[in-house]
Amino acid sequence: MPRHKATAAVFAALVLAGCTTDKPASTTQSAAPATSAQGSGTGAQSKFFVQADFDAQLAMRTQTPQGPTDKPWEQAIAPQMTGTAKYKKDGPYHLCFSNAAVNNPWRQVGWKTMQAEAGLHKEITKFTALDAEGKDDKQISDIAELQAKGCDALIVSPNTTATLTPAVTAACAKVPVIVFDRGVQTDCPVTFIKPIGGYAFGADAAEFLVEKVPAGGKVLALRILPGVDVLETRWSAAKVVFDKSKVQVAGVEFTDGDAAKTKSIVSDYIQRYGKIDGVWMDAGATAVAAIEAFEDAGVPVPPINGEDQQDFLQKWKDAGLTAVAPTYPTYQWRTPIIAALKILKGEEVPKMWNLPQPKVTSENLSTYLKPNMPPLHYALCGCETLPGFPENWGGKKS
Amino acid sequence: MKRALPILVVLLVLLAAIAVANPLFLEPAGFLAFLKRAAPLVILAAGQYFVIVCGEFDLSVGSLVTAEVVIAARLIDGDDAATWPVIALLIVAGLLVGLVNGVVTTKLRVPSFIVTLGMLLILSGAVFLWTGGAPRGALSEGFRAFGRGGLGPVPWSVLILLAMGAAAIWLMRADFGKTLMATGDNERAAALSGVRVDRAKIFAFMLSGLAAAVAAILLGGFAGVSAQVGQGLEFSAITAVVLGGVVLGGGRGSVLAAMAGAFTLEALFTLLNLYGISGALEFTVQGVIIIAAVAAGAIRLPRKFTPRRGDAHAAS
């Protein structure tokens, strides 16, 4: 049967190609680059890594933020204030928002929180939001369209950094712009709002593992995708921490954020090494799947990091895990609305608005675990006191 | 069996390669874990086979799987008592989607490629609208048992796979299989010789929907609630089927080979993973397989006109 033979030949060729292809730098090979110390298996450093940013973010973790402690979304770490008198105008206001997407639970929680925040302020009579559906080209035209709608201030959550920069720059000339979540390569926006950042996230998780995993222990690193700056910085910070430590990074794998794939990868590693002593993740959405791989293999769950998602926090509590959850708080979605109003009232705002980025630990786990919220809800939404909570966020009244 | 031989050889080679990379794979626990992981795709491939062999496509299975898992989570909402009624509902929903695909394809004469692509968009859009991108609710322990638990050391999903596989082979050996094969080989000739072509096709689509429902139950059980669970599964299933030597366009290939194709694909993914090769390559590999398989089929097209023994009739 020639057809079968041909298929088999193509197939064999593929397998061979697979075996001989240069492995990506960030895999199981232990050829440690010159920069790394004892730790091995972490591969080459990401081209997104910037030492100064890394140092600044790690330092920010211990700085005391300014502002009300019960409202972390109004706090700022080491703010450099900037004047906004030239934007001062009388209300009522029309705020506009160009959103990158609402295509994952994190953005869903954030978007609901932002809408609720906008609803709190009577002086905002109109709030126009356009969803770019994860497409750069749509977001560029969205931003242009919003400028024609008479917005008093424009909030942008950019889909990608470089591509959106010209669109944001153009908008800056016409209307006060507030950028949050992901950045752009210009300082023309009045303020840029973000939590401390990816380096702090990655380092928080890696430092925890280095502390909990015995020397020589094998850590499996799970990443979503390569090439996304907020995720690259998480891994590059973890790499720095692991390279200085005595733990071995057994593998660095991409999961595409897919639970089934995560579970399969972790199962493979458990089989291959017999024992995995720690799991590092660049995002916690698939943490429960990783944990279940250990449970299903009948071995104890090693120290692991997740994120502030309810399903992970629940599992953590139920199974008594050794875990930590660095966060990328969804409460940052409240801040742009607050910033916009401050700017339109002519009040000073931080040029770089760095929000605190708390860490869920076994000590404070019970404050963040909310049994009536859906499994994919993010605990640090800062939304508990907003109208419509918990129903609008998918929760049940207790 | 004879038609499944080449793909079985490839499968064995891959399994041997995995065993070299990971000796634990040869132990029962390791191998059963592989079967458990492959089960949903193998079942989907069997369903897709019925549709492909009668000359059609079902592109909607991936989004159907996602929809089923998301619906299950929302309806069960962690309540174990709801497990069985929801499972029944999922199966009915799967059959219903297949019925709609089949009826629109055959009665309204819309190409199945378009119908099921439309269904894919409708289902994924509906899921997104209903969940707002973040699934709500939770699956019960009872529901998850099908994907995680087992009867002693044998996972439930392996047992379900055996039952579904046996049923698929039996169906292709029965009159239905011959009808389906004849429909795919030459629809007009089949119709003229008294085959109820439309009914056979509708039934094939319903089997594909049923397979998607079962795969959803296993996948939801295996990995939990996710709005991405079915992403790309339709392509994996089609790749698996053509990898098994089933001809796109219909009329040739065995269901056993299609299922072996799914195992092979899963083994290949496992191998790529063991060698630390990026997940992005999976799509590339699938694309190459689809193109290569169709090209290999086209190269020998002229020979189609020389009658070969049992060509259009061998079911498995």
From TrEMBL, chain A:
Chain positions covered by the region annotation Disordered: 23-42
Biased composition annotated in UniProt, kind: Low complexity: 24-42
Pfam families attached to this UniProt entry: Peripla_BP_4
Recorded coiled-coil stretches: none
This protein's UniProt keywords: Signal
Annotated compartments: Cell envelope
Stretches assigned to the Periplasmic binding protein domain: 97-348
Chief localisation class: other
Similarity annotation: Belongs to the bacterial solute-binding protein 2 family.
The protein's name in its UniProt record: Ribose transport system substrate-binding protein
Protein's organism: Nonomuraea angiospora
Lineage: Bacteria, Bacillati, Actinomycetota, Actinomycetes, Streptosporangiales
TrEMBL record, chain B:
UniProt entry keywords in alphabetical sequence: Cell inner membrane, Cell membrane, Membrane, Transmembrane, Transmembrane helix, Transport
Domain of life: Bacteria
Compartments (UniProt record): Cell membrane
InterPro entries, per database record: ABC_transp_permease
Membrane topology: Multi-pass membrane protein
Membrane-traversing stretches: 31-52, 82-101, 113-133, 153-172, 202-223, 229-248, 255-277, 283-301
Pfam family, one: BPD_transp_2
PANTHER family: ABC TRANSPORTER PERMEASE PROTEIN YPHD-RELATED-RELATED (PTHR32196), AUTOINDUCER 2 IMPORT SYSTEM PERMEASE PROTEIN LSRD (PTHR32196:SF71)
Protein name: Autoinducer 2 import system permease protein LsrD
Taxonomic source organism: Nonomuraea angiospora
